[in-house]
Automatic annotation (TrEMBL):
Name of the protein described by the UniProt record: SgcQ protein
Residues in coiled coil: none
Source organism phylogeny: Bacteria, Bacillati, Actinomycetota, Actinomycetes, Mycobacteriales
Family: Belongs to the BtpA family.
PANTHER family: SGC REGION PROTEIN SGCQ-RELATED (PTHR21381:SF3), ZGC:162297 (PTHR21381)
Highest taxon of source: Bacteria
Record SUPFAM superfamilies: Ribulose-phoshate binding barrel (SSF51366)
Amino acid sequence: MADWVREVFSVQKPVIAMLHLSALPGDPGFDTRAGLTAVVDRAKEELDALQQGGVDGVMISNEFSLPYLTKTEPITAITMARIIGQLLGDISIPYGVNVLWDGRASIDLAVATGAQYVREIFTGVYASDFGLWDTNIGEVARHRTRIGGAGVKLFFNIVPESATYLAQRDLASITRTTVFATLPDAICVSGLTAGAPTDLEALSVVKKSAGTVPVFVNTGVRAENVADQLALADGAIVGTYFKKDGVFENPAERERVAELMANARSAR
């Protein structure tokens, strides 16, 4: 596994928690009456639950900006930068960002806020619930260098949620060429939607094909399966399970975080 994972997270097989921001200005679900104060207040409460529960890192995303755009409006990353600025004094673990589903905006936000990593769909062409979804990793990689973000680690999700790869290629081939031609820092393997189980067979195929590039399980990790997932993967990204009752829309709950993290520590 790449040395950078231990350097950033100070552990093997880290568990990164998702901090899902409520709907933001411009999103259909934004609560104009409660305003950004309510978004920040919830984010602070959830950050506290995640950190007190013992996660190794946090990824801040606009998860409730449904329906997603593949090229976001400027207001989204600008608002996220403001929110993260208000959270920085409380963040005590490595943090990353994810502007769904916009790799360039994610890198911009990381550079602006000092985030150490981003997760996005950086490669491939897909038929998705959001329409035809195209990417341009060559342009995005050069943009990262131009704006001083060469040190920002890129997590490539090669099994995107709510989408199907248009080329008829098997997962092993996609993984090998992604590693060779596009230089990911890590690869993420997902289920169909947030919280959906990641297929262990798919995870195994990606791990065997990725060489020295770290592979993270990206969805569906639970207290009862984290040991099995980490037996294959080099780390995990967890969102839905940490929520009250395991419900996507609910806030994170410290007790659920602590339960999963105890099992993760025993497994690694």
